[in-house]
Write a structure and sequence with these properties.
This protein is mainly alpha-helical. It has two domains: 3-207, no CATH class; 210-284, no CATH class. The protein has helices spanning 11-43, 45-50, 58-73, 76-83, 90-108, 114-136, 143-172, 181-207, 226-241; strands at residues 3-4, 7-8, 250-253, 261-269, 272-277. The strands form two sheets. A three-stranded antiparallel sheet has the order 3-4-5. Strands 1-2 form a two-stranded antiparallel ribbon. The N and C termini lie far apart (44 Å).
Length: 284
Amino acid sequence: MSYRKAGFNLRWPLTIYNLAMAVFSLCGFVRTMPELSRTLYRHGFTYSVCIGSTIEDQVALTWHNLFCWSKYFEFIDTLFLILRKRPVSFLHWFHHASVIALTWHAAHTVTAAGRWFSIMNYGVHTAMYAYYSWRAFGYRCPRWISMSVTSLQLAQMIAGVFIGRTIITVKLNGGVCHHTWENLYLALMIYLLYLYLFARYFYYTYLRPPTVKMSLQFPANCGTDHLADEAADENVAASQMNGKETAKPIKRKDKNGSGKIKQSTWATENGVDVCQHKDAKKIN
């Protein structure tokens, strides 16, 4: 573990942390899904979001409780960003802070739909942290994999809004639903905002047409230096979401020992992220 001007090199701690979170999320999904499956099979979807029977299954209850506590440990994500001197976006810190508020409010009011929220989150985080661990280990994944992870997050938000709509329908029709109006308002507000933020991120990261084309000159380490690559990815997404046409150059030291500073950016060429350097020529 070394300290540079770019921040701490935390590749191995970051890899281990992400892998541990992926395994934990997978265990949580596997241990809570049977209870939800039985409830859906015996009583249907509406019952599963309105009647809390999780307490009858002590295994599922234990893992739902662990889910609540795990929201605090996920702030380690933010710690890694700070130590590596990476930008902490609004989407990042708002997501972590609001999830804690919603999760513990739902636990306090014994919200029946909480089983859905935790199981969906366990499933999405299994894929998300597995992807992060692979990236942290130093490999760049195909573009469709990162798109799939973000698509899963979007699907989770859409499902959360649909569950909220179902609860509103039941309560307005006089049915029994173990979900307070206060938690329902909080959940819908947060999930709708998540849906907007993740959809906006998805568009600016994967769908917006490229605005820069340059001839490519690859150095030996282009595409293999994970820390620099990830910083460039974040820089491109951030600059696009702020309405800029090109990413701000990222300074990095040349690995050949010359000590010179090279400027490099990432852009999209035929749907593939490619590394570009200061000495690249523009194509008119």
